Amino acid sequence: MFRWLRNLRAVRPIPDAAWQATLARYPFLAERSGADVERLRSLAAEFLRDKEFHGAHGFVITDEVALSIAAQAVLPVLHLKGGLNWYADFVGIVVHPSEAVAHRTTTDYAGVVHEYDEVVAGEAMDRGPVMLSWQDVLASRVTRDAGYNVVIHEFAHKIDMHSGAADGCPPLPPRFAGTATPRDARAAWFAVLQPAFDTFREKTILAERFGGEAPWLDPYGAQSVSEFFAVACEAYFVNRAQLANDFAALVAMFDAFFRPDGR
Question: Which CATH number is 167-263 given?
Answer without folding.
Answer: 3.40.390.10
